[in-house]
Amino acid sequence: MPPSTDLLQGTLDLLILKTIALEPIHGWGIAQRIQQVSNDALQIGQGSLYPALHRLEYKGWIQADWGSSDNNRKARFYSLTRTGKKQLAAELENWSRLSTAIDLVLAHA
Question: What structural domains and CATH numbers belong to the chain?
């Protein structure tokens, strides 16, 4: 079993928004893509993913439409809204500032 990596609060939202920005995708696909792109370092469980998707949809950052998955199962495909695109840009800027600050502390601590 791969090691578990806890995410900073709010990081999951950023990862979901960035993943959805590429193309509309269903929930399981979001989790798989994050896991694949992170070389299996990040594994998002259903207990974290779906509440985050509902929260982002409630905030108006993403929308969901019904479609068919690769195996012809009915699934909700998530995509960014106009507001979600603006939020993604803000989240990326915040992440850049935060990661730079953490790097500075770690380099001098």
Answer: 11-108 (1.10.10.10)
